[in-house]
Amino acid sequence: MGDQKIRVVLLFGGRSGEHEVSLNSAQSVFKAIDRNRYQIETIGINKQGQWLWGLQPQDVLDKGFPETDQAPQVTLVVDPSNPRFIALDGRPLPDDGKFDVIFPVLHGPYGEDGTLQGLLEMANVPYVGSGVLGSSLGMDKDRMKVVFLEKQLPLARYVTFLRSDYFKESESCIADIETKLGYPCFVKPANLGSSVGISKAHHRSELIEALNVAAAFDRKLVVEENITGREIEVAVLGNDDPKASLPGEILPAEEFYSYEAKYSDIGSSLKIPAPLDESVVKQLQGMAIDAFRAVEASGLSRVDFFVTDENQIFLNEINTLPGFTEISMYPKLWGATGIHYSNLIDHLIDLGIERFQDKQNSKISRD
């Protein structure tokens, strides 16, 4: 784009349970992005799903979202020939609301699950991160596992069922879990992140409570066997030729890496690089790239594993829009591998534009 600054719209907030995580991620990006290379505009999405122009992440962290009459509420014009933002009250926006690329820093449903990506695809705009398919597969822990199994990646045993089936046939579902998995086991909503709604059940009464908690968050429930092992994560960066970072290890302060363990100051720590045999590191990096390609991710992903004392590896999940503060695992893994935080932002924007330009080479009709 020559000497002109690239116009980036930073999207943050959102309706999901990871709203606050998004605010912190966005503030880190906003602070670190190279102002000599980019002109940055911001849109904060409140918990009601309203898009508000010009909000700075730190102000929202400090004071909360303003009322909609105190900031321009905007919408994306879905016109592939002239995509842009407009203010609903008609007031002018910088550059008439036009931009070069969108950087969504939105975690969880309505940001990371393919819904936002579908909107951006309809508008024909470049954006950072995975497309519709990669995002939706990366969010749905059940469909993700089906794809991983098709690629013969090693997983813990699991069962999946709809909450409607659980409410109708709870005894049958519980018996199925106890027969196939035993205790302890993990109960998760299929479509959520940051360990929201996840519980570890050691016996039947805890299992019932855990199922009820998970059912409050999603229509589909995933229950997994407990794997005793170290929690290892690998970051992936790229499009068609992805690269994997050095692995890092999570040392949770609680029994598992819960939401509180991730985001509260209760003593959880990260060890980067993880102390592992070189052969295990190579296997983890190879599997991380295989998982990335299996769901057709692009741009960035963090892939989570368990490694047992016997160095047996189990793939846990892929996260296509991981936490992105400067102290989050994904940027720290790349920092240890040789890519500084601000340079990582550059790479991701370049990859988003590259993916968009590549897609423009594909026909969508016979005309």
Verbal overview:
- This protein is α+β, with helices and mostly antiparallel strands and 367 residues long.
- It has 3 domains: 6-127, Rossmann fold (3-Layer(aba) Sandwich); 138-154 and 228-358, D-amino Acid Aminotransferase, Chain A, domain 1 (2-Layer Sandwich), CATH 3.30.470.20; 158-225, ATP-grasp fold, A domain (Dna Ligase, domain 1, 2-Layer Sandwich), CATH 3.30.1490.20.
- It is 35% helix and 23% strand.
- Strands 11, 12, 13, 14, 15 and 16 form a 6-stranded antiparallel β-sheet that branches.
- A hairpin with a 6-residue loop joins strand 4 and strand 5 (84-87).
Question: Can you describe this structure in just a few lines?
Answer:
With 367 residues, the chain is α+β, with helices and mostly antiparallel strands. It has twelve helices and 16 strands.
**What would you call the shape?**
globular
On the 0 to 100 scale, the average pLDDT is 93
Which CATH architecture of the largest domain is right?
A: 2-Layer Sandwich
Q: Largest sheet, described in full? A: 6 strands, antiparallel
Might you state the CATH topology name of the largest domain? Answer: D-amino Acid Aminotransferase, Chain A, domain 1
Helix content: 25-40%
Cα(first) to Cα(last) distance is 29 Å
Order of helices and strands: EHEEHEEEHHHEHHEEHEEEEHEHEEHH
Specify the number of helices: 12
List segments where confidence is low: pLDDT < 50 over at least 5 consecutive residues.
257-266
| Count of individual beta strands | 16
Measured on Cα atoms, how large is the radius of gyration? 21 Å
Q: What amount of the residues lies in strands? A: 15-25%
Structural class: alpha+beta
Reading off the top of the CATH hierarchy, the class of the largest domain is best stated as: Alpha Beta
